[in-house]
């Protein structure tokens, strides 16, 4: 399965398909060729919904609670872990309702199942994995979607952990992942490879863009191993006080982190942060 894990998938999709993008929030300024670029403000929400139906944390209520949070908080980018494929479609409808006048888009990447060589499945038979939601100004420009499996996996776990990224017109690379839960050293290796190899490879092919990664990394600040050891130079990170993190390149300002109560619907709180992307900064972070 090693070859399958490393060969990540690239898709150029139109809005009619399941895609992800990072758009400007309603009311944000649009830059033209004669004006100085205005900062783009994005509210990012990370959720782990434990919605496979197979895990002990499953309640059957997390999708409803996620919809309530999206309606109340109106995030511009939502990163989703432990979801079924149709969960993305259901939450995209809610997301679109709070971003009227914009184009809501979504993407999904299934986790692999080592024994079968196919997708990991939820109890309802749908593929299980990670997803993204956001909105864009127009549906006209195709967006590149990247997804795949981490080359290092915990062989004691039949689930092959996956990752998902979307490059939106070279303006932002929005990503999510859910790292190994049964082998923390494996999670550290996956984290390092994603940030040190996979994302730079995408940027090398598509052109540099600021990066935002939200996900359940199953690593803690101050833990053993420590999540800080997989945050490379040129990146910054915030967390929920536990295993959910938002990582960004230095041309993104991370601000105003807070936890969002999920009222027992899942075993993780929501992690909400505000990001500012300064259009006047150079195209690459300081070295």
UniProtKB/TrEMBL annotation:
GO terms for molecular function: endonuclease activity; exonuclease activity. The keyword Signal applies. Residues 1-28 form the signal peptide. This is Endonuclease/exonuclease/phosphatase family metal-dependent hydrolase. SUPFAM superfamilies: DNase I-like. Residues 48-268 form the Endonuclease/exonuclease/phosphatase domain. Keywords: Endonuclease, Exonuclease, Hydrolase, Nuclease, Signal.
């Amino acid at each position: 399965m090693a070859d399958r894990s490393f060969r990540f998938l690239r898709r150029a999709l139109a809005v009619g398909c399941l895609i992800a993008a990072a758009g400007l929030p309603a009311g944000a300024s649009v830059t033209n060729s004669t004006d100085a670029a205005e900062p783009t403000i994005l509210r990012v929400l990370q959720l782990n919904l434990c919605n496979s139906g197979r895990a002990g944390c499953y309640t059957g209520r997390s999708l409803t609670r996620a919809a309530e949070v999206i309606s109340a908080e109106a995030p511009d980018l939502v990163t989703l872990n432990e979801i079924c494929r149709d969960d993305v479609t259901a939450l995209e409808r809610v997301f679109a309702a709070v971003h009227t006048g914009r184009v809501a888009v979504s993407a999904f990447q299934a986790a692999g199942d080592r024994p079968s060589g196919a997708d990991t499945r939820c109890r309802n038979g749908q593929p299980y994995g990670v997803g993204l939601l956001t909105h864009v100004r127009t549906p006209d420009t195709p967006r590149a979607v990247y997804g795949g499996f981490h080359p290092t996996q915990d062989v004691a776990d039949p689930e092959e952990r996956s990752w998902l990224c979307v490059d939106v017109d070279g303006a932002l690379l929005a990503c999510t992942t859910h790292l190994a839960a049964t082998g923390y050293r494996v999670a550290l290796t996956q984290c390092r490879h994603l940030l040190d190899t996979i994302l730079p490879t995408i940027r090398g092919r598509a052109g540099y863009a600021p990066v935002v990664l939200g996900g359940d990394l199953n690593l803690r600040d101050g833990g053993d191993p420590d999540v800080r050891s997989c945050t490379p130079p040129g990146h910054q990170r915030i967390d929920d006080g536990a295993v959910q993190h938002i990582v960004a390149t230095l041309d993104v300002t991370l601000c105003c982190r807070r936890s969002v109560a999920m009222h027992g619907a899942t075993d993780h709180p929501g992690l909400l942060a505000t990001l500012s992307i300064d259009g006047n900064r150079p195209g690459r972070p300081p070295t």
